[in-house]
Structures are given as structure tokens and as C-alpha cells.
Amino acid sequence: MSTTAPPVTTDRSDFRTVVTGGTTLGLLTAAGVALYLLVARSVPGNAARGGVELVIVIATGLAAAFLPGRWCEARSVEGIAGAAALGLWGTIVFSVIDIALLRPVRAYPWTWDAVGGGTTWWYLPIWWMLGTFLAWMGGIRTAAGAARGHTGLAGLTGPVVAGALVAAALAKLGGLAVLPPVAAGAGFALTLAALALLALARQA
Fold first, then answer.
1. Where are the domains of the chain?
2. Rounded to an integer, what distance in angstroms lies between the CA atom of residue 85 and that of residue 180?
3. DSSP state of 120
4. Of 62, 125, 128, 143, which has the fewest CB atoms closer than 10 Å, so is most exposed?
5. What does the H/E/C string look like for 71-88?
6. What would the pLDDT profile of 97-142 be if each residue is shown by its tens digit?
7. CA distances from 62 to 34, 41, 80, 102, 138 (A)
8. Which of 168, 167, 141 is nearest to 155 (CA)?
């Protein structure tokens, strides 16, 4: 009597997975940025516009942070590294789209470039680091969740979304000079990093 062994989930960090997944992620990021810009220019009312922008920021952040880990089936260092590489390639793909399509039509306000003294290139290294960081932290959280038998997206992403919403609420209620979508992005990244570091501490 023979039995068929169940398939073993392994980490994936091969070239094809990284390039294909990263390209898809870059396209999704470009779509999220384009949608945000469209909403910022066309949706009337500060409250309605801010709410839609908040949803777009969180949704795009979830894609950037957690899709790489799922596509690489992150379970150990190999898959986590693959997720980080996929995230980096995704930011490079978006940068090409940004330079070729978004910049020529002046999609961003002048204040964006003014941050870097008038140059359009200041943000590229920051964008590459941020995208890699989110995918890296998301890969760690994905691997840690799988080790505990938790592979559902809701359980992995719920606390991160909560952190983003709390940061946005604090910015709004506290009268801070920070737009709620921006505060949500910061809260998202900080919460994700904290959860990833906590997961590493548990395994140490």
C-alpha cells in the first residue's frame, strides 16, 4: 500500500519569481499612485477625498508589504530574502513607469520636487529603500505567521491596518500638520516593523 506525500511548501527566491512578481508589484503600485492622484484632483469635499485617499494608501501598502512574502512563500531566511528582492524590483519597475509616464504629464505638485531642492530624482533611493523594507518586514511576518500555522491574510494584516488607522486618527484629532493618508502610511510602516521585530525576538 503506497501513500502520496503531501506537497511541501518551500521558500521561493528564484530569478523568475522575483522578476515576475516584482514587475506585477510595480504595475500595481503605479496603478495605486495613479488612482490616488486622480482622487486628489477629482473627488470633491475634504472628508470624502481624504477617506478615499486613506483607503488607497492602506491597500497599496498591504500589496507592497504582503504580496512579496506570499508569492515567495516565505517560511525561512531564503523566502524572506526573496520577498525583499521582489519588493526592490517592484520599486524599480515603478520608477521606470514614473519617469516615463507620470513625470512628463506633471502628475505631482511642485512641492514634491521642492523637498529635494527642485530635483526630480531625490526620492528614488528613498522609494527603493521603502519598498524593499516593507517587503522585507512583510516577509518576516509572513514566515512567522506560517510557523504558527497562521497563513490567512486577515490575521497577518489586521494589526497593521489598525496601526495605520490609529495614526491617521491621531493626526486628524490632534490637529497635526500631517495629512491623515500620510500619517496612515507612517503608522502602517512603523506597526509592520514593530510586529516583524517582535516575531524575530520570539524566535531568538
1. 15-149
2. 30
3. S
4. 125
5. HCCCCCHHHHHHHHHHHH
6. 998 998 888 887 766 677 767 676 778 888 999 999 999 999 999 9
7. 17, 24, 16, 22, 9
8. 141
Residue 187: phi, psi to the nearest 5? -65, -40
Which positions ≥6 away from 105 have C-beta within 8 Å? none
pLDDT at 194 over 50: yes
| Look-up of cell digits 521603502 | 130
d(CA 40, CA 167) in angstroms, rounded, equals 20
- Are 140 and 203 in contact, with CB atoms under 8 Å apart? no
Cα–Cα distances in Å, from 100 out to 93, 94, 105?
Answer: 11, 10, 9
Residue 47, pLDDT above cutoff 90: no
Q: Report yes or no: 71 and 119 within 8 Å, Cβ to Cβ.
A: no
> How many Å apart are CA 53 and CA 57, to the nearest integer?
6
E runs forming strands in the chain: none
Burial (CB count within 10 angstroms: exposed 0-12, middle 13-18, buried 19+), residue 27: middle
Q: How many residues appear in the chain? A: 204
